[in-house]
Design a protein that fits this description.
Layout lengths: L3 H5 L6 H8 L8 E5 L3 H7 L4 H22 L3 E8 L7 H24 L3 E5 L7 H14 L6 E8 L1 H14 L9 H5 L12 E4 L18 E4 L9 H12 L10 H4 L6
Helix pairs in contact: 2-9, 3-4, 4-5, 5-6
Bound molecules: 3-methylbut-3-enyl trihydrogen diphosphate (2 copies) and magnesium ion (MG).
Length: 264
């Protein structure tokens, strides 16, 4: 992997270019998942209605999607609306749905231009028909693309996903002895995709809020105090650099330790 495409889009000599140059191209995460949080607080800090935070967050989405595509990430998953978010006032939910439709309409050409494949994960039931139509169109028009896989988690719940996978296994009458982790993985909304290597949460909250529960088993977690509407390319690069410093052990021991004698 090379950083050329990314560097070509960043002004020479800028702080972002300096950050990008520090990235080790051979250790870029395959899948980055982001819990985009803090829109409401961003608006409250400015004495604006909460929905203004959601509106401002669209620019962060644009920047993160484009940077991810230029960086050559395999998969980017953005948590846009959880099953639990239906608990919010109807007016806020309605604005979120409208913003999503508007984003898709205005960005579809850019997604196509970058060869991005758009995909929705979550439950269809409950989503307004006009939102579903827009989502399906974006999926259909980008289906053949081989660049970044951009998942948007919408009406998504990690427990619901696991429950749906169990139902699918029962409906397919799979033999209990055939259901191992690999088989189960094929029943998830993200079947065929690598699990997230890096999970980013903005706004400082130290929780996973029902996001990709199965898939994040060994994800590296990065929490930043930055509120989502303030999250820019720089923040994504900083998260990736922090990830590249991590020592992923998967229950084993660090390679440097593995080479030494532990017992005498
Ligand atoms: C994230 O921002 C957006 C969604 C969950 C849809 P929030 O709206 O949760 O913002 P805070 O957490 O209240 O600041
Ligand atoms: C998580 O944020 C959901 C999304 C980002 C879509 P929330 O703001 O809903 O999470 P909690 O309620 O703080 O756990
Ligand atoms: Mg929140």
């Amino acid at each position: 992997m090379s950083l050329e495409r990314l560097l070509a889009s960043i002004p020479e000599g800028s702080d972002d270019a300096a950050l990008a140059r520090q990235i080790q191209p051979d250790r870029v995460p395959q899948h980055v998942a982001i819990i985009m949080d803090g829109n409401g607080r961003w608006a409250e800090q400015r004495r604006l209605p909460r929905v203004e935070g959601h509106r401002a967050g669209i620019q962060s989405v644009r920047e993160v999607v484009e940077t991810s595509a230029r960086l050559g990430l395999g998969v980017l998953t953005l948590y846009a609306f959880s099953i639990e978010n239906w608990k919010r006032p109807a007016a806020e939910v309605s604005v979120l749905m409208t913003l999503l439709r508007r984003y898709l309409r205005s960005e579809l050409d850019t997604l196509i231009e970058h060869g991005i494949r758009f995909n929705v994960i979550g439950r269809e039931g409950g989503l307004p028909a006009e939102v579903l139509d827009e989502l399906r169109e974006a999926e259909a028009r980008t289906a053949g693309h081989r660049g970044l896989q951009f998942n948007i988690a919408l009406n998504y719940g990690g427990r619901a996903e696991i429950g749906d996978a169990v139902k699918a296994a029962l409906e397919a009458r799979l033999a209990p002895e055939s259901i191992d982790e690999e088989q189960f993985s094929r029943l998830r909304y993200t079947a065929g995709q690598p699990d997230p290597d890096l999970l980013i949460r903005t706004s400082g909250e130290m929780r996973v809020s029902n996001f990709l529960l199965w898939q994040i088993a060994y994800a590296e977690i990065y929490v930043t105090g930055t509120l989502w509407p303030d999250f820019r390319r720089r923040h994504l690069l900083e998260a990736i650099l922090a990830y590249q410093q991590r020592d992923r052990r998967y229950g084993g021991i660090a390679p440097a330790v593995a080479g030494t004698t532990l017992c005498t």
